[in-house]
Specification:
By secondary structure, the protein is mostly helical.
Length: 323
């Protein structure tokens, strides 16, 4: 058990870290609100530099403090991705920053900078086991939490644009070979869109309004809120057409995340084997079948987005020899 002085110092560091995080997040929220498609270069470059310096040189920062900074970094990236339109080059700039981080490789700490607590962490040290920067620690965790929880089940019923923007960003991550987290997000999106029973469009008599006191967690999104996100994610990815290899290339095992990767109700009813986690051939064929049905649903905006998704998925199926 640490002595009281060390415990007090650690508590103070954590409190300072949380205060700094609140300030950073408030500033980025205000920037997103003020100028959604603004340039985040200086903000990201600055925090990347701070994290690298804290990790390699500064013994006064606990591992918890550095993890807080990493969560702040990914918060900035994710909030920016949600605010930037799919075809805006600023999304590519976000990807460039992440690729530059990864290119820095594994940072090493000088032996004089290693406190016993940090030294005992081993070569990785972060709670997800990833190394800085080669493993982009905590990105997969923060991205999947944001995309799966916030995107589907909380107060985002009116955030169609944010959902679409983030889905396009996921497609970009996959297209440059950044699979950890992003592959699971894409799989979750297809599961929610094509394997989960949903009304095609909202029932105007029951859909909530901003003044309605509904428990949003109980709301079932109509399918048209999600299929357009799938369309943008797939369209961005189609230049590489590598969705089928995304899960196998990821170090994140979909079987460990059944609420994201497990078969949805419609897939189970269709007899898809329970072992078909990931982008399996059986599952891919089921998705195509569902999109074929939706393309004939008679509701123009749903049918149009479904047709666009269908075209890309059929090309991906041919290129990856899934059949």
């Amino acid at each position: 058990m640490p002595c009281p002085e060390i415990a007090d110092n650690m508590s103070s560091l954590v409190d300072d870290s949380l205060s700094f995080s609140r300030q950073v997040r408030q500033e980025i929220d205000e920037q997103v609100q003020r100028a959604p498609n603004s340039n985040y270069d200086m903000t990201l470059s600055s925090i990347i530099h701070v994290i690298s310096a804290q990790y390699t040189q500064n013994t006064t920062n606990s591992w918890v403090t550095i993890e807080h900074r990493l969560h702040d970094l990914w918060y900035i990236v994710i909030q920016a991705a949600k605010s930037i339109e799919p075809l805006n080059p600023a999304q590519d700039t976000l990807i460039r920053h992440i690729m530059l981080m990864k290119a820095l490789g594994r940072l090493r700490r000088a032996s004089s900078a290693l406190s016993p607590t940090i030294a005992n962490k081993g070569p990785a040290g972060f709670s997800d086991g990833a190394e800085l920067w080669s493993g982009l620690p905590l990105l997969a965790k923060d991205l999947t939490e944001e995309f799966s929880t916030y995107r589907y089940y909380q107060d985002t019923v009116y955030d169609t644009d944010k959902r679409k923007n983030l889905a396009a960003f996921i497609g970009r991550l996959l297209s440059v070979g950044l699979y950890d987290g992003s592959a699971l997000c894409a799989l979750s999106l297809f599961r929610e869109t094509l394997e989960t029973p949903r009304p095609l469009v909202a029932d105007e008599s029951s859909e909530p309004t901003p003044d309605t006191q509904w428990v949003i967690e109980d709301l079932i999104y109509p399918l048209h809120h999600l299929v357009i996100a799938s369309d943008f994610s797939l369209t961005i990815l189609s230049s590489k057409r590598s969705a089928a290899v995304a899960v196998t290339a990821s170090t994140v095992n979909p079987a460990d995340h059944p609420h994201l990767a497990g078969l949805g109700e419609l897939a189970v009813q269709a007899g898809i084997p329970s072992s078909s986690t990931g982008f399996s051939p059986d599952r891919w064929r089921f998705w195509i079948q569902r999109l074929e049905e939706l393309a004939q649903c008679g509701i123009n905006h749903v049918a149009g987005d479904a047709t666009s998704c269908l075209t890309v998925m059929q090309m991906a199926q041919e290129d990856t020899m899934l059949l």
